[in-house]
């Protein structure tokens, strides 16, 4: 059984004009030690999907349906008190902006000790030892000194290393990283990603990496989910998705990268923009931007079909598979 | 009028030249910009060793940058945050005044001009900013936003001519001209950036400075906006100074690339040459850090440490503290840009053949 299983998750936001469906029928799983990438543009629902695992969705959002299982327990049925035993302990999170995540009025050491002692009955001295050990693991220069420094004294890259050290404090089973390197420069991004990858492999931690950067996903993850307007539209092994994407949206996303066009030539753009969640088109949500959309696409929501190692929600792909089977 | 005749001769010269590509539009010469950190005069006073002294501290944002933008090209300036690339853009536009050095536009020095004398140049150069949410006035309709530069720079136009021009630029950037009565908040990020581009194009400029114009946009929208900028360049013969941190965009968009580090240009080359054969150790590290689709594992050149603060610049080569090839000379002597096969590089190791 998978370490984490999300089944038919529906998340809504109750607004004055009625509910907005932020996630619709999202199902995926994560194995122990596996690295999963969630890709999509802003507003696709990738962060909501990650946050709902630990029920971190703020009002007016709520989980309207579906269930979440983690290591034999049902997270979606847990009380707030029970969830606190899981959060930061078995499943920890890394957020985009390290300045927002760290408490500016506590030293690095205090924040780390606080987290350790909230979950384990250990002395202050023992907690500090563990904290120091984690800081060494994330290759921070002069770790002893960092324990007594405050977040504002550190650079962006260093802060993100500290966030990773905090995420690793209690030997979690899963780390959920929400755009961990978006706020950083390319050279620092490369270092942080390499570090995260190395530590996850070393400790056999499963990683859920949320990003809009297909390059990062292709380098770090083994499996990828592509989200569009609150739904998963394609999922499968990262290699297959990058090299042989089936869904027209995934293809468009990859082809739109500057490196996919000849220098100086026009880029292969996807026309239009992602719909806002209160005006999702009927049928396949991508149909107004899709070059292959038919009348069927405009009315009927596509179900998942298996193509190679991937699951794809597209009528055209289904028809192509059926045709191939027919000929065979 | 002498002005007219000189203008004519330059035009004649231009037509006589076999290729117009080598014509310099903007020349930046030994540009320097320092930002004062020390506050007012009173705050600068300090007691030191029993004496009252005045103590000043500066951020050295640009330290001797020399660049030439050729007519019709897209010169990209890349570097990490804090390297001074945006400051270069703003100084060229005259939004901030340089602390030293000169800026020449079409043969005329412009950095010390009074506002009135600068006016004709402002029409010829326009800017596109990073954040389309902040750079459009929320209290103006799109029509008003696009009319304003026209009314200001071309007061001779009558209202119907202004209307026609606004219609034309909206059409050119793919915004429905009927949407003129809407406000900026009614548009998505990509549409807003199109409107910013339309505003820049409204006065028919020849030179556009774009400061990270696509960084705030999603991947599929980035492609749309980049295409739009390339179309406009082709249709209107624009020259771009393109500031970005995204090297994959540079590889696609740029004619030439200048790599900046701590306020200095460390390498300048044609895009093809820079990506095929980066010479400066910093350029090499920067290129190796781009997350690419093809490779499985990052083969990233790891740099030691982090970018030092521009308040106390390192002596010698500003990159020496992180450079794996640094030696005694690098620590003491500032490298100058020297010509290479496809451009220029400022590195002692390259010059000495150590690299």
UniProtKB/TrEMBL annotation, chain A:
UniProt cross-references to SMART domains, sorted A to Z: AAA (SM00382)
UniProt-listed GO biological process terms: peptide transport; transmembrane transport
PROSITE patterns in the record: ABC_TRANSPORTER_1, ABC_TRANSPORTER_2
Leading EC class: translocase
Highest rank taxon of the organism: Bacteria
A single Gene Ontology CC term: plasma membrane
Localization of this protein: Cell inner membrane
Family matches, as Gene3D superfamilies: P-loop containing nucleotide triphosphate hydrolases
Database matches in CDD domains: ABC_NikE_OppD_transporters
Recorded GO MF terms: ATP binding; ATP hydrolysis activity
Known catalytic reactions: a dipeptide(out) + ATP + H2O = a dipeptide(in) + ADP + phosphate + H(+)
Protein known as: ABC-type dipeptide transporter
Organism the protein comes from: Terasakiispira papahanaumokuakeensis
């Amino acid at each position: 059984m998978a370490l984490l299983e999300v089944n038919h998750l529906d998340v809504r936001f109750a607004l004055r004009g009625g509910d907005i469906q932020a996630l619709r029928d999202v199902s995926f799983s994560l194995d122990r030690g596996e690295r999963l990438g969630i890709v999509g543009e802003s507003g696709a629902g990738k962060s909501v999907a990650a946050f709902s695992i630990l029920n971190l969705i703020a009002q007016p959002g709520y989980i309207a349906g579906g269930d979440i299982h983690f290591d034999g327990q049902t997270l979606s049925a847990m009380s707030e008190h029970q969830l606190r035993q899981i959060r930061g302990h078995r499943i920890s999170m890394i957020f985009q902006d390290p300045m927002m995540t760290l408490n500016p009025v506590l030293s690095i050491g205090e924040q780390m000790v606080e987290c350790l002692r909230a979950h384990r009955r250990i002395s202050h001295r023992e907690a500090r030892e563990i904290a120091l050990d984690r800081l060494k693991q994330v290759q921070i220069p002069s770790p002893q000194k960092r324990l007594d420094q405050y977040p504002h004294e550190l650079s962006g890259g260093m802060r993100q290393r500290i966030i990773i050290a905090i995420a690793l404090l209690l030997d979690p089973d899963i780390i959920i990283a929400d755009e961990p390197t978006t706020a950083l420069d390319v050279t620092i991004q490369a270092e942080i990603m390499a570090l995260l990858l190395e530590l996850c492999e070393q400790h056999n931690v499963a990683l859920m990496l949320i990003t809009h950067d297909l390059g990062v996903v292709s380098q770090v993850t083994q499996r990828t989910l592509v989200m569009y307007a609150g739904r998963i539209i394609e999922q499968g092994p990262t290699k297959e998705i990058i090299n042989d994407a089936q869904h027209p949206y995934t293809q468009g996303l990859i082809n739109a990268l500057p490196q996919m066009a000849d220098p100086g030539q026009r880029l292969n753009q996807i026309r239009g923009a992602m719909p806002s969640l209160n005006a999702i088109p009927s049928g396949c949500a991508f149909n107004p931007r899709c070059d292959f959309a038919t009348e069927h696409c405009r009315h009927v929501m596509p179900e998942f079909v298996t193509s190679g190692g991937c699951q794809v929600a597209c009528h055209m792909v289904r028809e192509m598979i059926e045709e191939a089977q027919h000929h065979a | 009028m002498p002005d007219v005749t000189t203008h004519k001769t330059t035009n004649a010269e231009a037509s006589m030249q076999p290729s117009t590509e080598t014509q310099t539009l903007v020349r930046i010469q030994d540009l320097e910009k320092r930002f004062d950190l020390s506050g007012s005069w009173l705050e600068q006073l300090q007691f030191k060793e029993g004496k009252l002294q005045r103590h000043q501290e500066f951020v050295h944002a640009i330290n001797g940058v020399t660049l030439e933008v050729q007519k019709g090209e897209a010169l990209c300036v890349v570097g990490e945050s804090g390297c001074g690339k945006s400051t270069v853009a703003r100084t060229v536009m005259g939004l901030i005044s340089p602390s030293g050095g000169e800026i020449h536009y079409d043969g005329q020095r412009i950095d010390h001009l009074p506002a009135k004398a600068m006016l004709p140049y402002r029409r010829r150069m326009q800017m596109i900013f990073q954040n389309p949410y902040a750079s459009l006035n929320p209290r103006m309709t799109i029509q008003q936003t696009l009319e304003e530069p026209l009314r200001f720079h071309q007061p001779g136009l009558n209202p119907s001519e202004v209307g026609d021009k606004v219609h034309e630029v909206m059409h050119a950037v793919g915004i429905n001209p009927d949407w003129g009565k809407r406000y900026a908040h009614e548009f998505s990020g990509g549409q807003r950036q199109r409107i910013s581009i339309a505003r820049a194009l409204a006065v028919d400029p020849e030179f556009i400075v774009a400061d990270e114009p696509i960084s705030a946009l999603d991947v599929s929208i980035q492609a749309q906006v980049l295409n739009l900028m390339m179309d406009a360049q082709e249709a209107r013969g624009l020259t771009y100074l393109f500031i970005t941190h995204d090297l994959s965009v540079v590889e696609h968009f740029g004619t030439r690339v200048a790599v900046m580090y701590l306020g200095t240009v460390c390498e300048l080359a044609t895009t093809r040459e820079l990506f095929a054969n980066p010479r400066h150790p910093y350029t090499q590290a920067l290129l190796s850090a781009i997350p690419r689709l093809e490779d499985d594992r990052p083969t990233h050149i790891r740099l030691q440490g982090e970018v030092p603060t521009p308040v106390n610049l390192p002596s010698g080569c500003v990159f020496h503290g992180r450079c794996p090839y640094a030696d005694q000379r690098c620590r003491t002597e500032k490298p100058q840009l020297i010509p290479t096969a496809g451009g220029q590089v400022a590195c002692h190791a390259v010059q000495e053949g150590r690299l």
